[in-house]
Amino acid sequence: MLKLNISLQIWKSNSSVVTLMSVERDTSGEFKCEVSADAPLFHTEIRVARLLVVDVPEDAPALKAEVQKIAPGATLRANCTTPGSYPAMNITWLLNDKKMHSRRFRNDVEFEDIYDASDNGVDVQIEKSIFRFDALPGLETTQSTFSVKTRPDLFDKGKLRLRCLATLFTLYEASREAEIQEDAPKLALVMVHKDQRSKGTYNFRRDVTTLFFTLSILSIILLIN
């Protein structure tokens, strides 16, 4: 039988609450609560609940995007990795503060889930893998890759926001965010120098004046003759 090195914290315990101290991973398991009635019936009720002792990290997840600037229509890919924990954490992706809902489209592979998501027509693919963390025995890390085919409407003022949110029940919540700039082609402006425009106008007026003057002289000569 496994002997656990735990102690009862009396001042935080009462007839309905038991507080345990110095719990370890091996403390996880089923706990039973037994309530018995007084004599002469001695009726007894037993309830069972499962306890899970978790290892919560202090660090935030790591987020890395393949590019910092992308053209609309290209595929953006990013990777999110959580620090070691037990059990493995859950990763949620948010695009411009919108949660990407996933739909499983093929059978699970051991320690690997692959999802396909569609949110308002956004073509998204999410892949998640869980790895054993060899550096710290007993811990696990979650790694998720995210890819989306960008569209012009995904960029707000020339950028889109991609966030990776890692959670472990209600005990841990941390996120990382990346801003991706829109690499859109810019219109080229053709500048015409003011002097050139004025020169063209001046030459035109000069030619018209010269023609008028020439015609006037011809008219005078014809009248004299």
From TrEMBL:
Coiled coil: none
Keyword Disulfide bond attached: yes
Transmembrane region(s): none
InterPro entries given in the database record: CD80_C2-set, Ig-like_dom, Ig-like_fold
Domain of life of the organism encoding this protein: Eukaryota
Gene3D superfamilies the UniProt entry points to: Immunoglobulins
Keyword Ion transport recorded: no
Pfam families, A to Z: C2-set_2
Domain Ig-like, chain residue ranges per copy: 57-181
UniProt KW keywords: Disulfide bond
Identification of the protein by name: Uncharacterized protein LOC114329245
Organism for this UniProt entry: Diabrotica virgifera virgifera
